[in-house]
Structure formats: C-alpha cells, structure tokens
Design a protein that fits this description.
Strand content: 25-35%
Shape: globular
Number of strands: 18
Structural class: alpha+beta
Number of domains: 2
Number of helices: 13
Radius of gyration: 25 Å
Distance between the termini: 70 Å
Low-confidence stretches: 347-351, 353-357
Helix content: 25-40%
Largest sheet: 9 strands, antiparallel
C-alpha cells in the first residue's frame, strides 16, 4: 500500500495521472451475514432486481442518486465541514426553510429558480454553457459539481457526477411476508355498522371500513425483504477524468483542487448504514476494503487515503479558492407561478396549440 504523499496527491490533478480513485466495500446486515434486509421499493416495480444470463439475481440496495443524497448533506450538517461550501438557505416563510444542499436537483432545482438566487443560478449555468467556465457554479453550489447537475428546465447545462456510489446485493432470494390485522373491538356488535357490512368488508383491504381500521384485514404476498447469498457491495468512484475537465478562465487548478477536496471528504466519510426501515448495514470487519487508484493502463495501486487526510486537504484548498459567506434568500411564489406559465407556453409552442386567454 502506498503511503499518502504530495506526489500522489499531485498526480490526481495531473492530466496524465490516474483516471479514478475507487473503493469496494463489503457490507452485511447488522443482524449478521444471513440477515434479511429490505431494499427500496419502486412504483409498479417493487424491488429493483436484475436477472443475469446465468440466472444470478442482483438487487439494487441503494441507487446512485440515493447515495449522493446521503453524502451531500454532511456539508450542511457537520459543523467542521460547513466552512468548505457556501451555506445558502432558502426561506419559504412561516418557519419553513431549506438548504440548497437538500434540493434534489441541486442548483437546477425548482426551489432555486423560484427564489432570489434564481437569477444568479441562471447566469452561472449560462456562463458555463457559453464558455465552459464552472467557477460561478462552484461559487454558489459546488456540490453540484461533485454529485452532478442538469439544468433540464432552463439552460440544459449538464455536468457529470465526479463522485458516484451504489450498493448492490448479489445472488439474492426474495422473501414474502404476511400479516393479519384484528380490530380491538367488534364494532358491528356495538352497532357502529351492521353485521352484514362487517362480513362484506372483512378481507377487502379496499373497503372503507378496512381502510379506517374497523374490520379484520389480512395482508399477504407483501415484499418481505431479501437474503443475499453473495456479497453486498458498496462501490465508490471518484472520476478524476471528469474532475480535470472542469475549467475556469482565471484559475482552473484552484477550482479543480477545491472540488477534489470536497469529493475526497464526501467519499471517505463513513457510511451511515441505516438506509431505510429493515435495512441497517455495516462494513464486514474482516473485509473492510481500501482505496485504490486506477491508472490509464488499468494498474491498481492501494493508497492509504483516510477521512482525516481528506478533511485536511479540503480545508486547505477551500481556503485557497475562497468560499463565500453564509446567506439566506427568499423563496418567491410569484416566480414559481411565472415558471409554470412559461412551461405551459413552451409546451403550447411545441404542440402548435396556443393557450386561450
């Protein structure tokens, strides 16, 4: 394993340096290797399980987008990291506010467009589209460069993820579960409704009485989690090629170092394995994994990259780049309404149908 050195760090910025830093982490349910755990369910799909040509079933345990959404908030929640990125809060009034790092589409989110930050965000995207300079985006929302952003509703500016993570379980068996709800009282005997209505509604989960919890209802064939006979793997990649493609008119190297520091912090932060109810995962103690840098030739070299290293470098590079002071901007309901009207007008133009006055 190569010890961290200045030469190794400099190689990550060097155009001829390694193409990526990667981590493959072996996980297990907190109950044990043979524990049942619950992957996410998707509308009309249920569990996202792919069957390979040899019959092996592979389940998505946490998607790329979900992993990004778990990593990004650390820059707002950890007091030791808040100085690394602009702390911009959008105030919606009546005690409601949201950090820009909680917005699902980051700088391209509707909540940003419909706020006092909207004009600046639009200008930042337009500058990137026109010149390729990502500095303005980094000044407002650098995590948009770390985890990717697409201004799909306006400029169409698109930047790829530099940090990408995903968790998959291999060779899985899908389980089912059943339950039976029994009300604490016989409401028909209490004349809340008739015995006939009770008999008609019991067992029918869609009936009004069942929905309100007044009659016995069975629940069968419901998703019951999965059992992984193969590994549960978390794969993390820091795409150094995408990092080096970031450009700035004035100081591209400072921009790249700043964003790299954020990438290193996000990627090396220990996993919060409580992904959802019934899914608490921890690293395997005997297979903790480790970081490798991958050369253009495919050669892999183990490196001793730690979260402490990442935080130290990120602080140094953020200071050199310059991070703007925290601020709060107002949400503008009228701007949101205007945005909706604009979209309706665009749709009408594309279909050739004008909206009636």
């Amino acid at each position: 394993m190569s010890k961290m050195s200045q030469d190794i760090i400099e190689s990550w910025i060097d155009p001829k340096g390694p193409v990526a830093l990667v981590l493959r982490e072996q996980l297990m349910p907190v109950e044990g290797e043979d524990g049942v755990f619950f992957p996410p369910t998707y509308a009309d799909v249920g569990y996202n399980i792919d069957t390979l040509s040899d019959g092996t079933k592979v389940a998505t345990v946490d998607s790329v987008g979900s992993q990004a959404n778990r990593m990004e908030p650390i820059f707002a929640e950890d007091p030791e990291l808040q100085h690394l990125v602009p702390q911009i809060t959008i105030d919606a009034g009546a005690g409601h506010s949201v950090s820009i790092m909680e917005a699902g589409h980051r700088l391209g989110d509707a909540v940003v467009r419909a706020s006092e930050l909207g004009t600046e965000a639009a200008a930042a995207f337009e500058s990137f589209q026109a010149t390729g300079d990502a500095t303005a985006i980094a000044r407002l929302a650098p995590t948009s460069l770390v985890f990717g952003v697409w201004d799909s509703r306006a400029s169409q500016a698109k930047l790829p993820r530099i940090v990408q993570g995903v968790i998959r379980a291999w060779d899985v068996d899908v389980l089912k579960r059943a339950a039976q709800y029994v009300p604490p009282l016989d409401y028909a005997k209490l004349e809340v409704f008739s015995e006939e209505e009770k008999q008609k509604s019991e067992g029918d989960g869609k009936s009004p009485l069942a929905k309100k919890g007044f009659v016995a209802v069975p629940s069968t064939d419901a998703p019951g989690g999965i059992l992984a006979r193969g590994p549960i793997q978390r794969d993390l990649t820091i795409n150094l090629v995408a990092l080096r493609r970031l450009w700035a008119k004035d100081n591209a190297e400072a921009l790249r170092r700043y964003v790299l520091g954020l990438c290193l912090v996000a990627a090396t932060e220990p996993l919060d394995g409580f992904l959802r109810q019934g899914c608490l995962l921890v690293p395997k103690p005997d297979q903790a994994g480790g970081w490798e840098q991958v050369a253009r030739t495919g050669t892999r070299t183990r490196i001793a990259l730690t979260n402490a290293d990442a935080r130290r470098l990120a602080a140094l590079w953020a200071k050199a780049f310059g991070v703007v002071a925290p601020r709060t901007v107002k949400f503008k309901p009228d701007a949101a309404k205007a945005d909706l009207v604009d979209k309706d007008s665009d749709k009408a133009k594309k279909t050739g149908k004008a909206k009636k006055a």
